[in-house]
Amino acid sequence: MKRPAWNGEIQDRDEQYRIKRQALLRTAARAFNQHGYHKTSLNDLARQLNVTKPTLYYYVKSKEEILIACQRIAIEQMRDALTDAHESQRPARERLRKFIGRYAEMIADDFGRCLALSGMTDLSAEAREEMRCGRRDIDIAMRTLVEQGIADGTIAPCDATQTANALFGAINWMAHWYREDGSQTPADIANRMFDMFEHGIQPR
User: Which CATH number is 68-201's, of 3.40.190.150, 1.10.357.10, 3.40.50.150, 3.30.565.10?
Assistant: First the structure.
């Protein structure tokens, strides 16, 4: 078996590409969140990364591709969190609380905040449809959690769609006001929000 160069201590080209592209995406997500998608140029990103603008084209084809990639990362993170929630054997209300906690952490992250703040108006029709399908899958999975809670008796009978929408809306709004240097962590905020909702959804 051929030994890797430098005994594997140095990343190969594929790994270097992945790391550098991820650095570009996170830098872009943060810039979009702070300044807005339209007010952030590829030149701005190149300056922040201390590279030339042509260098960026080795990793992405356009600014829209960057926005799409950032939103994809956020949606995949949410899908993973929902998959974990659905695979757990705990009562549905506990699984819902756990997911809301992870969702709040994602919204506080650069990519989740980018998804919440950027929306889909700046995407091509094909990309909008992809993101719309991703969001719809998450909405359905969230609503299913509420329905499972109603079925197992840990959530009072309610309109599952409206309940899911209200929870999503409350957490998504964190993207507008949450600050990393604040006194509360995303998990703290999620727990307090869920406590408020829980008084309305627990069985009487």
Answer: 1.10.357.10
